[in-house]
Specification:
The protein is an alpha+beta fold. Helix 1 packs across helix 3. It has a seven-stranded antiparallel β-sheet. The protein is globular, with a radius of gyration of 14 Å. The chain has a single domain, classed as Alpha-D-Glucose-1,6-Bisphosphate, Chain A, domain 4, CATH 3.30.530. It contains three helices and seven strands; from the N terminus they run E-H-H-E-E-E-E-E-E-H.
Length: 130
């Protein structure tokens, strides 16, 4: 059976709250995930309108600060929902680990999507350092 998702993780000396704060602010999405979003408009507390390459689509933003979860979910083909499922967890001796799972598109490879997710995680951590 072929993979349907790609998961990558990155560790940082930053505490989980610093990374969570960047993820939870929807306006930061184009800064750390430019492949996914050029611009973001907040519709209400949990709904966003995301623009990418002349197209726009709806995204649901699900936040759970206590659990360190931030999910950017959208409608996909075949009436399915999917998107970026992100977890920020503390490391035992300080700092944090960030894990992101995203779906594979119909015309993408594990390696290609994996590289993109790795770049997004690196940019996310860099943004949290600023």
């Amino acid at each position: 059976m072929s993979n349907q998702t790609v998961t990558r993780a990155a560790e940082s000396e930053l505490e989980p709250g610093a990374i969570y704060a960047v993820l939870a602010e929807a306006g930061n999405l184009p800064k750390w995930a430019p492949v996914f979003a050029d611009a973001v408009e907040r519709v209400d507390e949990t709904h966003l309108r995301v623009a990418k390459g002349g197209d726009a689509f709806n995204v649901e933003l699900l936040l759970n600060r206590a659990a360190g979860t931030v999910d950017y979910i959208r409608e996909m083909s075949n009436n399915r929902r999917g998107g970026a499922y992100i977890r920020v967890t503390p490391r035992p001796l300080g700092g944090s680990a960030v894990t992101m799972t995203v779906p594979l598109g119909p015309n993408t490879s594990d390696a290609e999507v994996g590289r993109t997710v790795e770049q997004e995680l690196a940019e996310l951590i860099a943004l949290a350092r600023r």
